[in-house]
Write a structure and sequence with these properties.
mainly alpha; elongated
């Protein structure tokens, strides 16, 4: 998913829809939903070009260490 990839890489994303399956991308600030609103799209593109995109972060557990956590849980369950 482009919104997830942009969030992980801290790149602004504009979604041309009024909803997303990945609400966390909107909550942390990398993704904005503009729907079919051309004025909003223009405003957001302008902010992106001008370097005025809102500050963002990564959602909890988006640190690239999922495999380590899964292995740890499996080891604890087996042990």
């Amino acid at each position: 998913n482009v919104a997830e990839e942009s969030t992980f890489n801290q790149v602004p994303c504009i979604t041309l829809n009024s909803y997303t399956e990945h609400e966390e991308t909107v909550k942390v600030g990398t993704n904005v939903l503009v729907g079919e609103d051309a004025d909003m799209l223009g405003k957001m593109v302008g902010q992106m070009i001008d370097g005025q995109w809102k500050n963002s972060g990564l959602p909890d557990r988006w640190d690239g260490r999922s495999a380590e956590r899964i292995v740890q849980i499996l080891l604890e369950s087996a042990g």
